[in-house]
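Handout, section B. The chain below has 819 residues.
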Amino acid sequence: MEPLDVAFAKYQQILPQLVESLTGRGTEADARLQVIDRLLIEVLNWDRSDIRCEKKSGDGYADYVLSIAGKSRMVVEAKRDGRDLGCRSKAAGQAYKLNGPVFKTPAASEGIRQGILYCAMNSSELACVTNGLEWIVYRGNRLGDGSETLEGMAYVFPSLTELEVKFGLFYDLLAKPSVNGLVYRPHFQEAEGQPIRTSIFSRALRRAGSARLKPSGELSKDLDRTMSEFFQRLGGEGDDEMVYECFVESPESRLADHRIVRIASDLLAQVQPIETTHAAALTAAISRGQELDRREFVLLVGTKGSGKSTFVDRFFKVVLPKDVAERCIVIRIDMKDNPGDSRSVVTWLNKRIVASAESAIFPDSPTFAELQGMFFDEYKRLSKGPYSTMYARDREEFHQEFGSRIDALRTNDPHTYLQGLIRHVRTQRRSLPVVVIDNADHFDIEFQQHVYQYARSLYEKSACLVIMPITDRTSWQLSKHGALQSFEVTSLFLPTPQIGDVIRKRIEFIDAKVEHEKLRPQSDYFVKHGISLSVKDLNGFAKTMQRIFLDMPNVSRTVGALANFDIRRTLDLVRKTMVSPHIEVDQLVATYISAGSLTIPRWRIDKAIIRQGYEVYPAEQHDFVQNIFDLHTNVTTSPLLGVRILTLLRDVPDKEHEGRSIHVDSVRAYLTGMGLPSRPVDLYLDFMLKTGLIQNYDPTVQSIDDCTLIEVTDSGLLHLRWATGGDEYLSAMTEVTPIINESVYERLQAYRHTDWRKRTAEFIEYLRIEDSFYCTIPVHPNYQGQDRLQQQLCEVEQRLSSRGSTPEDPPKRPDRNRR
């Protein structure tokens, strides 16, 4: 059943009880308890936790303040049943002026004015006055629309029994889901004679789900199947050679994220960048641990996706000198397997590290002699103390008892048992225990801090090397709480490599394998990996990649920004771009093989990125590119709301340690000042958060309700640039954005494919006009960026409408797969 139907059924069920409760004459509290509470909670879906009674509001106390997500949304003033509100002779659901003759009784007049005062004090919009029988619902706060509050309208419901006649309206005005969705606003707008822009017509030139794959050549299909391994994951499952060869070795990166440098420089007195060719700093730490019998704690600081895990794996297998590596016992824990509960993470870590340590130290399981050596102090204590008689009488029985105690220790106190394992590695095997706790950065900052504290406890109690990769944000949080200053720690900064360098490594890897197979035709590297293409095709493919991603560096920056410079996601986007039929890789490879000149227009590459393998932009199916003009929030608002949010976040001053972060409440307040209500703003922010256009200060947070400080991402900034001047992007979104103006839709539909510029210009004009219905820019320096946005769009509109065809345009033939 629909929520409205459920509510109506409940209303009918409890109506006799409500009527009966009003037959007597009680106090104001009686009416509230017996009728109002039940209607609010049982019928109108408010939770008891949403309701505050007798809330201090200015000089008085509001009877009810109802909140959603901690924000006041409605005020209810309760009057005794004996106090007449003057509505009993009125028709249910009828609207009357607040300052008109209907509401002249003392109780109604008093309640309405109290509601207005308390709405102002609590920043609520909706108000209600009721004696349990009669209900008056009105807007107690106009939210700065310039109209006098008492000039507004109020809906009346004269009795509980007559609610049935207009129950749908009653529900729309007062139910929690309706209040949360601002459903009441159109009702008041209609009652007050304000024009309502209906959106009954809403149609895109290409409806959602109609995108069809664009035909591609056989070479593209083969490449998509066989080259995925080269691009999908930096970790390179099952191909260590590729991972190590393609790791970007760089002492520092010019594209190192400025936020990491800023945070890390304050975190420690000296940030020591990793020299990734030989990783001398980490090698020295291991050598010190082996020779000096000391402990070291190493933090690998970098952004999520910067390659920290790959660095550690490659370091111990490839970089670390063999004579040093042979004396290391690496105990590695992957936090990705953890369910993410910070309360149980210590128990989980104890069990996993013990299992991992035993697996790394012992081929099968520890022998009794090894257990005896690990816990020899305990063995001596028992044999000379409480079990000395057993030890002297029956050595085998004593050993069984000792073994049982150690097994119980492993189960009940794994942390102490682990210390015994580490002692065994140091004293008996003369090796260095290296504990690596990896991928904690997949979880929120609080979780990472718990893992950090656990890693620290290992460091403090055991002579070992502990390595923990953490994010830059976590390192800053730890420094704020002084956690890093309380003991010695070596912090190594792992910069994010330039995307161009990452791609170059992949191309060099392919080239090297191609040359090897030219010299040794029987080499089976490509065949072993299911790649059946000829060496010529592979060579041509590599050169085409080089032409696109290295000779045109802006392309590398574009794909990197769309993936927020996460290396794994970037490589996935590179793969999808290369096999897009819009690139026409078949022709490019053929051109290279025939010694022709490779010419790739930038518009073709942008089209491949935006449309991928489809003839049009695949709405709701793209992992990297979003339609910023249609964020699927099911609310009627300005189509430029997303662009305005990104503009605001771009214009936030860059603050030390915090970047361009701003509190979510400040975003809401700023946009409310432009006439944009908080509800659609929250829906847009939530969508943008989940799609990577913005991020919380803790980037693992994926719900706007849990956000505090937010900031625009690299992907968000690129979308903003595209939305205010990217021809390919604007043209693609013209085709898929729902248009709610039928005449505009018909004009856009009438354009030929070759008139894509003029069609896009008209789409931009439509966006600007629609935006003006919802948004008014205050004349203030803080809103200059919003004012310039309209100017930018006007300039793009004029440029597109005035420009004719250029040699770089697609061929002007009626091809449905083109613009």
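Note. Confidence is low (pLDDT under 50) at residues 250-274, 805-819. Compare this with the example in section A.
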